[in-house]
Write a structure and sequence with these properties.
Two copies of one chain form a homodimer. Chain A has about 325 residues and is an alpha/beta fold. Chain A has nine helices and 14 strands. The longest helix of chain A has 16 residues. An eight-stranded mixed beta sheet of chain A has the order 9-8-7-10-6-11-14-13. Chain A has a five-stranded mixed beta sheet with strand order 2-1-3-4-5, sandwiched between helices.
């Protein structure tokens, strides 16, 4: 139990909301006191409290059992309540945040202000923020005599690398589900938790790219009905324009559907999810930033997908009976 | 953050020591107070303190910062110290243990006695202990007016199922390392952390079964030199007795090496690890209780292994750059 351990917990919590926080970065936060874990939290979606505020709110309740904080939902309300009621209970606490606390009034007041007013004993930072508007949190904390340390910089940078790509230009990830021996067809189907998860991601993507053969064979809907979300535009990657327009994906309203072999269409979109099999992956792998793999619990007697790609595992977590793995290309 | 969440933490901690605790069961323990995590621990090896004692020792230090407990290593010493010094600090704490606390004087004094003397607010149990000698902990706690709850029984039973097989008769697991698309040859090699882990397991196994072709091709040593451990006996599963005796595995002292196509040799051993490829797995899968898979970060362009087996994922954890997965056959 050391700084690396607690920062890893914060990073793992934040990965659960990868993509879902866009256009904000994923940020995780852990608060400790004498090596005890007082709270664990993460930023969940744009407009809701930052990871630090969620963790501080929960820590306040855990330490005091004062229920008055529980109904407060906006960052401003939580800030105001804590300024009046903190009673210095955080002065022996340490706060681990995967990203330098924000230092500006945006949709929410600055986390750096809250942390320094509550007089935390020490703040441990994963990655520094290179965003010109939000950064400056570390300097603000130092000015207020808060002790600063650093931990797990590489992993904390990896956590927000997708967000940075999104912010600068575009984020592209390839999603597939396979058995644990790499079989994507005729295998065990993904569990409900994994399917829900895919629909949450579709809700956040603005373009979904899919192979023509998959569309002809699976006749998919490609919506986000499981979470009542938005439905991304579709690019069917295909040389032939010949598709049965009764396939459900064409019936979704307020959606553009492109049928084309020109991947340049992707350039008009900020967050692109690609769904497909081995051929699609082979054709498109140079354009992919991240791989999202749902591993299902089976060793299958079928052939695996086999484009040759060196990976780096970034995170894995339980999704019902499956394992959800995020990976990037190995550098 | 509820009973299931905290019990899952305890279960995950215990899985890290699966096999390594033999002839004892793996047991994990988490102590909380008002939803704050005061300590996390697990039983590490036979003769060392039980999971509960390790967690209580760490919780005492975290809550009091009294360093006098830190040098104490035996359960008896920790018990004695806590009886005198606990000062009722645990009366608002809850203890999550994956297995009913032991209730007898074995190599260590009974955990049930310690827990009731320290007057925990509540004890949450994963699995009941059906061992006739050690069981009775729950009844002892109830007699001392400790409140009992239950959580994650299925997962807690799965954690100790291998131990039960070992105790009753024999535990057999098949280990392989593959890329994330199921390729075990010519792929990316396992990382150092995974290799260390395999040597720790070999140290605890009494027989290692390996295919003849693998022995001829890889010329392995099959020892546990990375952890200075014991070296298991070897069964080379082969129709031909013809092997170059210069292959390093034959040079290891105090080891029997069988060369045979008779798997009944396995029956003389309590803990059997099988290492091999797809053919070996196909031939032996009926005899396998558990699968231990080290997934390496690569999608390879080679063929996968493909015996058809429906699995249930039991646990996965980080091993350096790899993912270590425990699975059983799906029931």
């Amino acid at each position: 139990m050391n700084d690396d351990f607690f920062m890893s917990l914060a990073i793992k919590q934040a990965w659960k909301f990868q993509i879902l926080t866009l256009p904000n970065p994923p940020v995780g936060c852990v608060i400790t006191q004498n090596n005890m874990i007082i709270s664990i939290s993460a930023h969940k979606k744009s407009g809701s409290p930052h990871g630090e505020v969620g963790a501080i709110k929960q820590a306040y309740y855990n330490l005091t059992q004062d229920k008055n904080i529980l109904p407060l939902e906006t960052s401003q309300d939580i800030h105001n309540f804590l300024y009046e009621n903190h009673n210095n209970i955080f002065s022996n606490c340490e706060l681990y945040t995967t990203l330098e606390p924000c230092n500006h009034y945006g949709k929410t007041p600055p986390c750096s202000l809250l942390i320094s007013k509550l007089n935390f004993k020490r703040v441990i930072i994963g990655a520094k923020d290179d965003n010109k508007i939000a950064s400056g949190g570390i300097n603000s904390l130092i000015k207020e005599n808060i002790k600063i340390s650093y931990a797990k910089e590489k992993e904390s940078l990896a956590l927000i690398d997708g967000f940075k790509k999104y912010q600068k230009n575009q984020l592209v990830f390839f999603k597939y589900a396979s058995t644990i021996n790499g079989v994507i067809t005729g295998g065990y189907l993904s569990c409900d938790d994994s399917l829900d998860d895919v629909h949450k991601l579709r809700d956040k993507c603005d373009l979904l790219v899919i192979g023509g053969n998959t569309v002809r064979k699976d006749r998919p809907t490609l919506d986000s009905r499981r979470v009542n979300g938005k439905n991304p535009d579709i690019l069917i990657y295909s040389n032939s324009k010949n598709f049965d327009k009764e396939i459900p994906l064409f019936k979704i309203k307020k959606r553009k559907v492109f049928i084309s072999n020109d991947l340049n269409i992707m350039k008009n979109y900020k967050c692109v999810m690609i769904e497909g099999g081995g051929n699609m992956l082979e054709n498109i792998k140079e354009k992919v930033d991240y791989f999202l793999i749902y591993l299902t619990p089976q060793i299958s007697d079928k052939d695996n997908i086999k484009p040759n790609i060196n990976l780096e595992f970034l995170n894995y977590e339980e999704k019902g009976k499956d394992i959800k793995v995020w990976a990037s290309k190995r550098k």
